[in-house]
Structures are given as structure tokens and as C-alpha cells.
Write a structure and sequence with these properties.
Length: 462
């Protein structure tokens, strides 16, 4: 279905608004510290930074796609994300802000040594990069749906450039300010879409009676091990990702940081409900479409052109915002935990700021290359593993460093960092019927427990 002039005009104006906000916020950034972690963000900007990255293609287009096939089971992404933000607010915000290190891998390095920190930095960055490729490929797919006939390179290049504008000029501040604007637009988009889907379906009761209950109104439609694993993967993955730790550390006070995470916990789960209603409606009335097109086609068919254009642009920015936040996280890890260990030539604030921005360009350039040569399509198959891989690498070592300092020997921390992701990959290759994160975390927990017992035994023997 072709787009009207109203669609195109509102899409252009919405994208210009987002770009202007990114450039404006960038003018306020004068140092690497403001770029990487801010330190002067209020509650709404902290929430914007969290939701601006966490609420992307998976929370909107991906949720509608999964709901088209499995219904309520698609809620686990946004539901797990909301629960993780609650835990981030109540248990992790304070310890993270009190720690001197700017990054999660820096926390690991300070507790367990440079070797453990370097391993965590490389593996964590790789896990984040996998998700970045998935966002680039998702953005390219959305552009191709909206603008039929556009080539792979122009559409992917456009997505990468918008990601750069979104965050490169302002870092955490840009991610937060633009995230607030995006959150407002996205809420309007998803709530309106969900209401329209319910109305045009004849009400939720019609969906209830027309679709199989055992599948479409079952949170565990794909099996308890798969769906519960998806929720746990999101929960641990968020707590193990640099981007969300940066958002918390950017708060001007502990209260602002905590309230920003709490606000995110309240706001994120309802977004999934709108996507689920859209997916169910499209399954009921257009059962033969490609599931991934459920949300974009619903918008084009059912919404007035001006509103539809705003919603399409907002969905695009939702995907782009996630990719931009992930690229910022990779840049911060490399800048603080890898380059700084190799050379001290860039410690001066202005040089560090320049390196941080340059790294974002490099990361996005590599993402563009891999997506163009076709790796992006493969990554989409494994993209959901990204959160689990990050959790298997970072979660337990960070918890030990924050809550049990001095209780684990560095050698066991290194073994945990390596064995966790290997367990996840082994489970995936073995084709287990549940989320392979459980295997990776079980292996990592076992090694951590042995390390804890070994340390205590050593003290007793002394």
C-alpha cells in the first residue's frame, strides 16, 4: 500500500524534530564525562535514556509480530524489561552510583584485575554489537516496507546516520532528551494503535472468542521453559548492559536515578499490550500476511495519514534509538576499559570526548558493513541471544564485585566470564527445549560458588 503525501510530510517533520533535539543536546556537552555518564540528568531524562534504548523494534514491531503467532506470550519482552527496571531501581542504582568505575566491566576490572576486565569488555561488547546489527537490519526492513524499491545500502546507511545524529553529539544527554520525546510519541502511537485494534476487532471480547485461548491468551504459549527463559533473559540482560548502567549513573542525584528507573518500570510493560492487540487484530483479519509486517501494515491501513506518518517515524526512531544507545555503550566500554589500558595519551577530557564520538562512528560503520553483506539477516535469527550472552558474561561478576567484594578469587571470576557464554552457545547448538541462558547461568553460578567456597576455605586454613 503506497504512502500518501500526508504520510511523507509527517514522517519528515517527526524525523527533523528528533534530529534537532539531538543536535541541541549535543551543544550542552563539553567533556567526556558528560558524554559518557552525564551526572546532571533529572528523573525524566534518566527514564528517557533507559526507555529510549530499551523500547525499540522488539518492544513494538517485534511484539506485534510474535503476538500475531502466539498472542500474550509476546508480552515477555516488555514485561521482563519492566521487572528489570524495578530491580535496577531498588537494588543496583545506589551501588552502581557509589562505585568509582564508569562502566560495568570497569567494576569487574577493579575487583578482579585487568585480565578479567579485558575479557568482560571484549565479550560484553560483542554481545551488544550483535544486538546493534539486529537493530540496523530491523530499521532497514522497516524502511523497505514503507518505501518499496529502496536499495539495501541507502536504507541501511540512512538508519546508521540517524543513529549517529541521535547520540553522537550528546551522548547520554542526547539519549535522555531524545528518549523523552520518543517516549511521548511512542506512547501516543502504541496506545492509539492498541485502542484502534480493539475497536476495529469488535472489542477484546471478540478477540477472546475468535482466537484459540490456549495459544493467544497464554503467557507460556511457547512452553514454560522458553517464555519464562525469555523473561529471565531480559531481566538479567538489562542489569548486565552498560547502556542502562550509564543512564542510572547520569542522574543528578540518587533519588533522580532511582525514580527514573521506577518510571521506566511503570511505562514499559503497557507498550507491549498495544503491540499485542495489533498483532491479534491482524491475525484475525489478515491471517496470510508476513507476521513482521503486522504493525506497519496496521498503521498504513487504519490510521489517518498525518497520524500514521508520525507513528511510522516514531517506530523507526524506536529502533534507531535502541541502536544508538547500544553503540554508545560499546564506545564507552572501549574508551574506558580497553583504550585507557593500552595508552594514556587520550586522558585529557577533550581528547577523550573526541575518541568517544569517533568510536561511535566506527562501530556504526562496521555495523553498516556487516548488515550490507548479509550478516544482519543471520544476526536477526540469533539477536534474542544478545541479552542472555551479556548476562552470562557480566551479571555474576558484577554482583560479586558490588555486593561481595573480596569473596571470590580473580581466577574464578575469569572462568565465570568465559564459561557463562560458552554454556549459552552450547545449549543453543544442542537445541535444548528451554532458554539456553539457564545453562550458561548454571555453569557460571557453579564456578562462582566453587570460587566462594575456595576463598572461605583458604581463610579457615590460615
Amino acid at each position: 500500500m503506497a504512502l500518501s503525501a500526508g504520510h511523507l510530510i509527517s514522517i519528515a517533520l517527526t524525523l527533523l524534530l528528533i534530529a534537532a533535539a539531538g543536535v541541541y543536546s549535543g551543544k550542552k556537552v563539553k567533556s567526556a564525562g558528560e558524554f559518557d555518564s552525564g551526572g546532571n540528568s533529572g528523573t525524566f531524562v534518566v527514564a528517557g535514556a533507559i526507555t529510549g534504548t530499551l523500547v525499540g523494534g522488539s518492544s513494538t514491531v517485534g511484539t506485534a509480530q510474535l503476538a500475531f503467532t502466539y498472542g500474550m506470550s509476546a508480552w515477555w519482552f516488555t514485561l521482563g524489561a519492566g521487572i528489570s527496571c524495578l530491580i535496577l531501581a531498588f537494588f543496583f542504582a545506589g551501588p552502581l552510583r557509589r562505585h568509582e568505575s564508569a562502566t560495568l566491566t570497569g567494576i569487574i576490572s577493579r575487583e578482579f584485575g585487568a585480565g578479567a576486565g579485558m575479557l568482560a569488555s571484549v565479550l560484553s561488547s560483542l554481545g551488544i554489537f550483535i544486538n546493534l546489527l539486529a537493530q540496523l537490519a530491523s530499521a532497514q526492513a522497516l524502511i523497505s516496507t514503507v518505501i518499496p524499491g529502496i536499495g539495501l545500502f541507502p536504507s541501511t546507511l540512512f538508519a546508521a546516520l540517524i543513529m549517529a545524529v541521535y547520540v553522537i553529539f550528546g551522548g547520554v544527554l542526547a539519549a535522555g532528551i531524545v528518549g523523552v520525546i520518543k517516549l511521548v510519541l511512542l506512547y501516543i502511537a502504541v496506545i492509539v494503535a492498541g485502542i484502534l485494534a480493539a475497536v476495529f476487532s469488535g472489542g477484546v471480547h471478540t478477540l477472546w472468542t475468535a482466537l484459540p485461548h490456549e495459544t493467544y491468551f497464554n503467557l507460556f504459549a511457547r512452553g514454560f521453559g522458553v517464555d519464562a527463559g525469555a523473561g529471565v533473559s531480559l531481566l538479567l540482560g538489562v542489569l548486565s548492559t552498560q547502556t542502562y548502567a550509564q543512564a542510572v549513573k547520569s542522574g543528578i542525584t540518587d533519588k533522580a536515578a532511582r525514580n527514573g528507573a521506577l518510571l521506566s518500570a511503570v511505562l514499559i510493560p503497557p507498550i507491549g499490550v498495544g503491540g499485542i492487540l495489533v498483532g491479534m487484530h491482524m491475525k484475525l483479519h489478515y491471517p496470510d500476511i508476513v507476521p513482521g509486517q503486522a504493525f506497519p501494515l496496521f498503521i498504513i491501513k487504519y490510521m489517518p495519514p498525518i497520524l500514521g506518518g508520525i507513528v511510522l517515524a516514531t517506530l523507526f526512531i524506536a529502533i534507531v534509538g535502541t541502536g544508538a544507545g547500544l553503540s554508545l555503550g560499546i564506545s564507552t566500554i572501549i574508551n574506558n576499559d580497553i583504550i585507557k589500558r593500552i595508552t594514556r595519551r587520550f586522558d585529557e577530557p577533550k581528547k577523550k570526548l573526541l575518541i568517544g564520538r569517533t568510536l561511535i562512528i566506527i562501530v556504526l560503520a562496521f555495523g553498516l558493513i556487516f548488515t550490507i553483506i548479509g550478516v544482519g539477516d543471520l544476526i536477526l535469527v540469533f539477536g534474542f541471544m544478545s541479552m542472555g550472552l551479556r548476562a552470562a558474561v557480566v551479571f555474576l561478576p558484577v554482583c560479586c564485585a558490588l555486593f561481595f567484594p573480596g569473596k571470590i578469587r580473580p581466577v574464578f571470576a575469569k572462568l565465570t566470564i568465559i564459561s557463562g557464554p560458552l554454556g549459552v552457545l552450547a545449549g543453543r547448538l544442542a537445541g535444548v527445549s528451554f532458554d539456553p541462558l539457564f545453562i550458561g547461568m548454571a555453569v557460571a553460578l557453579l564456578i562462582t560458588g566453587v570460587g566462594f567456597a575456595f576463598k572461605q576455605k583458604r581463610y579457615i586454613l590460615k
